[in-house]
Amino acid sequence: MERQTTLKRRVSLSGVGVHSGRPVTVHFNPAEAGTGIVFRRINEGAEGRLIPALASEVVKTDLCTAVGQPGGDQVMTIEHLMSAVAGLGIDNLLVEIDAAEVPIMDGSAIPFVEAFEEAGIETLQSTRKYVRVLKPVRVEANGAWAELVPWNGTRFEVEIDFATPAIGRQSIELDLDPQTYAREISRARTFGFIKDVEWLWAAGLAIGSSLANSVVIGEDDSIVNPEGLRYPDEFVRHKTLDAIGDLSVAGGPIIGCFRSYRSGHRLNAMAVKELLADPSAFELVHARKTGTQFADIVPVNQGRL
């Protein structure tokens, strides 16, 4: 059976919050089996309570994913970090952060991947718990949709459709494993449009956004960044990066297929909550992975997390 993992040693990163524009340092600490991914604010004035990265703790999905308590400690923009955690198969971490927002770094997940690889990943003795999809669940809004369906693997099929010719309609299908994630997904950056900058700033958002951490599309539908794109279809790869992070709050890696069309943080979170709200739609299992598929699947418990 697959074993749980954590880091071999503490590692830290510093940067700015993409929405706040404020400096932030985050420390990734090894944690014992069964801890999961938990955040703790360590800045002055914070309560310092542990915030599990679970669907029940998601409090915001507008332009980012945030966890915490209304009126209490919250951590924003966790999706790129959580994507790297899920992509590399890390089960347990204590994440200490001295501000309210995870640093945007270069707009992708590769800085987190490199930090985790530098620290090293340690295999623990306890068995990993998976969330296995038993029947389809689907959410829709304004022509967009997201669904989770049974699949003997961890698969993502993501499609986007933008009116601008700089993006257009793009799709990707992949079976998730650490090597595929690092090579095909981790370097894809967040993106935005120059025409949206003024209203975002007026709303107190994207203050820390720049060409150093975002792919920017100009008024003439061109890519403003001098270096261009990292992948020809970097936009759909980044949406997949986001989806991997958003689905990581299910309580364990998912055995199933996530499919979406024009989805974002809100619909991704809704799909996870829809799955977990129906005890007949999932089960908790231990399993052994062979290639991209699972074998020796053994139920742990069935019902609500």
From TrEMBL:
<feature type="binding site">
    <location>
        <position position="80"/>
    </location>
    <ligand>
        <name>Zn(2+)</name>
    </ligand>
</feature>
<dbReference type="GO" id="GO:0103117">
    <property type="term" value="F:UDP-3-O-acyl-N-acetylglucosamine deacetylase activity"/>
</dbReference>
<comment type="similarity">
    <text>Belongs to the LpxC family.</text>
</comment>
<feature type="binding site">
    <location>
        <position position="238"/>
    </location>
    <ligand>
        <name>Zn(2+)</name>
    </ligand>
</feature>
<dbReference type="Pfam" id="PF03331">
    <property type="entry name" value="LpxC"/>
</dbReference>
<keyword id="KW-0443">Lipid metabolism</keyword>
<keyword id="KW-0444">Lipid biosynthesis</keyword>
<keyword id="KW-0378">Hydrolase</keyword>
<comment type="function">
    <text>Catalyzes the hydrolysis of UDP-3-O-myristoyl-N-acetylglucosamine to form UDP-3-O-myristoylglucosamine and acetate, the committed step in lipid A biosynthesis.</text>
</comment>
<keyword id="KW-0441">Lipid A biosynthesis</keyword>
<keyword id="KW-0479">Metal-binding</keyword>
<dbReference type="InterPro" id="IPR020568">
    <property type="entry name" value="Ribosomal_Su5_D2-typ_SF"/>
</dbReference>
<comment type="pathway">
    <text>Glycolipid biosynthesis; lipid IV(A) biosynthesis; lipid IV(A) from (3R)-3-hydroxytetradecanoyl-[acyl-carrier-protein] and UDP-N-acetyl-alpha-D-glucosamine: step 2/6.</text>
</comment>
<feature type="active site" description="Proton donor">
    <location>
        <position position="265"/>
    </location>
</feature>
<dbReference type="InterPro" id="IPR011334">
    <property type="entry name" value="UDP-acyl_GlcNac_deAcase_C"/>
</dbReference>
<dbReference type="InterPro" id="IPR004463">
    <property type="entry name" value="UDP-acyl_GlcNac_deAcase"/>
</dbReference>
<feature type="binding site">
    <location>
        <position position="242"/>
    </location>
    <ligand>
        <name>Zn(2+)</name>
    </ligand>
</feature>
<dbReference type="InterPro" id="IPR015870">
    <property type="entry name" value="UDP-acyl_N-AcGlcN_deAcase_N"/>
</dbReference>
<keyword id="KW-0862">Zinc</keyword>
<protein>
    <recommendedName>
        <fullName>UDP-3-O-acyl-N-acetylglucosamine deacetylase</fullName>
        <ecNumber>3.5.1.108</ecNumber>
    </recommendedName>
</protein>
